[in-house]
Structures are given as structure tokens and as C-alpha cells.
Design brief:
Elements lengths: L13 H7 L2 H4 L3 H17 L5 H20 L12 H13 L12 H37 L4 E6 L2 E7 H26 L1 E2 L15 H8 L3 E2 L3 H6 L2 H28 L6 E2 L18 H24 L13 H24 L2 E2 L1 H9 L5 H10 L4 H18 L8 H5 L9 H4 L2 H6 L9 H17 L1
Parallel strand pairs: 3-4
Antiparallel strand pairs: 1-2, 5-6
Helix pairs in contact: 3-4, 3-6, 3-8, 4-5, 6-7, 6-12, 6-19, 7-10, 7-19, 10-11, 10-12, 11-12, 14-15
The protein binds arginine.
């Protein structure tokens, strides 16, 4: 039976019922709805609506229901209740009879659903924070294993300057660090309790909303009932966090797809995260990474869907807002899954260090070094840049690396070039020079790794 039948003469059409019901989606809020209901029953006892015995009976029945659901969560989906709030109330009434009908006193599904969803966001947010940390850990382990491995660094997907594989790993550790920070900020703002806001105007019972908020585990109660029941900023913020983090994950995926390509051959992905082709027996495709890249679009879609749903909605609650959960659940699940998959991928990466070294040695990745060498001989950088450009042009036409020119050949471009130039042109020298904070020298990578490990231990 619906929660609101009294005012209606006709039954809802079957099509409308299906259209309107949210149980197939919001059943996931069952734990939060039960928790919220227990706290509400205590608040009702405090204002004299329920006796202590009544509150105890309701609480016991709600806890039993919670255990039953834990054993058999699928049972919810066999019900024809409109939503999870109706389902919990129905089950309560079945368990304790008329007493169950008192629980909704002074409460509306509007403040109820807002509360349930915030509780869900907080719990899921914690899980995501841990998933981000796990991926950071896997990347730090990879950085440790490959901290000395030379990797060509790219700009415009053109070989630019050599870096180390460890430095590449730690770039993503930084990105996920910002994601954790963003998530924590969003969770801090979400940590306010709407319960007691009623349908829109505030409940008519003298509930101590501060006590209720802390009983629910919130930092404080919300301060405006109209806003509290119609605020979905937390949904949008979490999906924004998910979108930005998925953008990072998609770049991680794309880098690795390229490194794993036959053309680059820098890494081999483990069999555990790749699949074969039904036709071409030789294939080993980077599906896990492609799916991470692909799911990014889906998460962006959920964010823009919700922004569009909320746009220009009048205060306060509107049924449009029921559309918040599907996208949120999907975005958060996808994000979590991609983070977990990222760990599996990172753990199984085998780096082909001779291929990465060979690639770093080609493509004139040491041209900047030659320019810096000329600068050390008092040639202004802009002039040095031009001279090296000419040397590179010549090297390309002869199919040579810069260090393959004889001293006499180099001196055609500048008489200041001496025998000591060759040590400048080695990969080792390119790396060693990047001693600046945040640079790719082995010492700096080691330092960055230590700092990241220490930061992680502090969480
Ligand atoms: N199922 C609804 C939602 O998810 C909550 C119910 C609010 N319904 C209402 N008629 N005010 O938003």
C-alpha cells in the first residue's frame, strides 16, 4: 500500500507506478534509511511522541530488519513498495503493527531522502578515499621498482627530454593526492544533517536537531529547511570529484596504452588485465585500460545529467530530484572500479627498460643539453637554441644522434664546443642535471617517493 492513498479515489496507473517508483534504484539506501529511522525514533521519544518502550520496540524491529536485509538483500526488490522509505515503513508496520505507523510523525520523505543520501555519500566517500590511497600505494611500489629506469618524456607526443619511470609514476600519485583532497573537501561540506527539516518548512516538533545530527554522525545540522530538502550539491560535488579523478585515470590509461603498443613496446601488461581477439590469435589487448578510458565519458555524463536536472528547479523539493541517485551510484561505482582496476594494472606492469632507454636515446631528447652546454660557454640561450636547431637539422638529414658527430663536425656550428661536450649529451647527464625540487633526477625522485610515503602514513 502506498504511503499517501487517502486523498485519492483512483489507483495510479500501472505505467505511472512503474514510472514513479524508485525502489529499483534507491534500495541501496536501506541501511541509511534504517539508521535514520532509529535516530528519528529517539528524537521522537525526546519530544514525547513515543514512550521509551515504544522507541525500544521500534529500534529492535528496525535492527532486526537490518539483519534480515543483510542476509537477503534481494528481498527488497521483490516488493512493490514505491521507494526504500515506504519499504522500510511497510516492513516495520508488519513487524510491530500500529506502533510502526507512528514513526513518520514530524518527518517527510523529503528530509528523509536527503539525510539517507548524505549518509550514503559519506560512507561511499570513505571507500573511495581508501581506493585512491591504494592506487597511490601501487604506483609508489612501481616507482620504487622502476625509479632508475629511463623513460622518454613527451610533449605533443614528441620525444622531449628523458625522465625516469619512477618520475612518471609519481606524477599520478600527485594527481590522486589532489583527488583525495577534493573528495575530503566535498565530504566536509556534505557532512550536515537535513533531518528535522520536514517537507520544506521544518518539523513542527521541538526536535533538538543538534543532538539528532550528532546521533546520525553528522558534523552539524543544516540551517535552512528549504535548502536542506532541495540541496543536491553533495551529489554534484562527488560526481565532480569523480569526473576529475576519472580524467586523471584516463590519462594514466592512455599513457599506458601507448607504452604497451607494439610501436613503443615500453611495457608489457599482465595477462590478468588484457584480453585476446576472437579472430587474431596474436592479439593481447589492453582492455582494462581502454575501459577505464571509456568509463570516463560515462561518469562525465552522470555529472552533466545532474547539473542539467537541477538547473532552474524551483525551491524546494521536486520529484525531478529523484533522478539524482542512478547517475550518482553509477558514477561512484565506476570510479571505484576503475581505481581498483588501476591497482591491478600497476601491479602487473613489466617495464622493458632497454626499449625505454633506446627510445630516450633517439629523437634528440638531449638537444636542450647541447644548448645548455653552449650557455655554459657564455653563448646567450636564444643564440644557443638556434645553433642547436641547425645541428639537429643536419643530424636528421644524416640519420645520426647528436653525440655521433665528431668534434670537428660540431665545431662547424660553434668554435666554443670542446671535447667535454660529449659528457653533457649522455642520458645520465640529462637526468642528473634535473636536481631542482620536483625534477626527474634520481635523487629528487627518491626524495619525492619518501615524501609521498610519509604523507600517506600521516593520513
Ligand atoms: N523517492 C523520492 C526521491 O528519491 C523521495 C520521496 C519524496 N517524495 C515526495 N513525494 N515528496 O527523491
Amino acid at each position: 500500500m502506498a504511503l499517501w492513498g487517502g486523498r485519492f479515489k483512483q489507483q495510479p496507473s500501472e505505467l505511472f507506478k512503474k514510472f514513479n517508483d524508485s525502489l529499483p534504484v534507491d534500495y541501496r539506501l536501506v541501511e541509511q534509511d534504517i539508521q535514520g529511522s532509529i535516530c528519528w525514533s529517539k528524537a521522537l521519544e525526546q519530544v514525547g511522541v513515543l514512550s521509551s518502550d515504544e522507541q525500544q520496540a521500534l529500534q529492535t524491529a528496525l535492527l532486526t530488519l537490518s539483519e534480515e536485509v543483510e542476509k537477503d538483500p534481494q528481498q527488497i526488490l521483490t516488493s512493490d513498495a514505491e521507494d526504500i522509505h515506504s519499504w522500510v515503513e511497510q516492513k516495520l508496520i508488519q513487524a510491530v503493527g500500529d506502533l510502526g505507523k507512528k514513526l513518520h510523525t514530524g518527518r517527510s520523505r523529503n528530509d528523509q531522502v536527503a539525510t539517507d543520501l548524505k549518509l550514503w555519500c559519506k560512507a561511499k566517500g570513505e571507500e573511495l578515499s581508501l581506493a585512491l590511497v591504494s592506487l597511490q600505494q601501487a604506483l609508489m611500489d612501481l616507482a620504487q621498482r622502476e625509479k632508475g629506469t629511463v623513460l622518454p618524456g613527451y610533449t605533443h607526443l614528441q620525444r622531449a627530454q628523458p625522465v625516469t619511470f619512477g618520475h612518471w609514476c609519481l606524477a599520478y600519485v600527485e594527481m590522486f593526492d589532489r583527488d583525495i583532497g577534493r573528495l575530503n573537501d566535498a565530504l566536509y561540506r556534505a557532512d550536515t544533517s537535513p533531518l528535522g527539516s520536514g517537507a520544506l518548512a521544518g518539523t513542527a516538533y521541538p526536535i533538538d536537531r543538534h543532538a539528532l545530527a550528532s546521533d546520525l554522525g553528522f558534523r552539524r545540522p543544516t540551517l535552512n529547511s528549504l535548502d536542506a530538502v532541495s540541496d543536491r550539491d553533495h551529489v554534484i560535488e562527488l560526481m565532480s570529484c569523480a569526473s576529475i579523478s576519472m580524467m586523471h585515470l584516463s590519462r594514466f590509461a592512455e599513457d599506458l596504452i601507448f607504452y604497451n603498443s607494439g610501436e613503443a613496446g615500453f611495457i608489457e601488461l599482465s595477462d590478468q588485465v588484457t584480453s585476446g581477439s576472437s579472430l587474431m590469435p596474436q592479439k593481447k589487448n589492453p582492455d582494462a585500460l581502454e575501459l577505464i578510458r571509456g568509463k570516463t565519458g560515462r561518469v562525465y555524463g552522470s555529472l552533466s545529467g545532474m547539473l542539467t536536472t537541477m538547473k532552474a528547479l524551483p525551491l524546494a523539493y521536486n520529484k525531478d530530484m529523484q533522478e539524482d541517485k542512478e547517475g550518482l551510484f553509477d558514477a561512484m561505482d565506476s570510479w571505484q572500479l576503475c581505481l581498483q582496476m588501476g591497482v591491478l594494472v600497476a601491479e602487473g606492469i613489466k617495464v622493458n627498460s632497454s626499449a625505454t632507454l633506446a627510445a630516450a636515446q633517439q629523437g634528440y631528447a638531449n638537444a636542450t643539453e647541447l644548448a645548455d652546454y653552449l650557455v655554459s660557454k657564455q653563448i646567450p640561450f636564444r643564440e644557443a637554441h638556434h645553433i642547436v636547431g641547425e645541428v639537429v637539422l643536419k643530424a636528421i638529414s644524416e640519420g645520426k644522434a647528436l653525440e655521433e658527430f665528431t668534434l670537428a663536425e660540431l665545431q662547424v656550428y660553434s668554435s666554443l664546443i670542446g671535447e667535454d661536450v660529449y659528457q653533457y649529451l649522455t642520458i645520465e647527464s640529462c637526468l642528473d642535471k634535473r636536481q631542482v625540487l620536483g625534477g626527474t633526477s634520481r635523487e629528487q625522485v627518491e626524495l619525492a617517493l619518501d615524501t609521498s610515503r610519509r604523507d600517506l602514513a600521516d593520513i
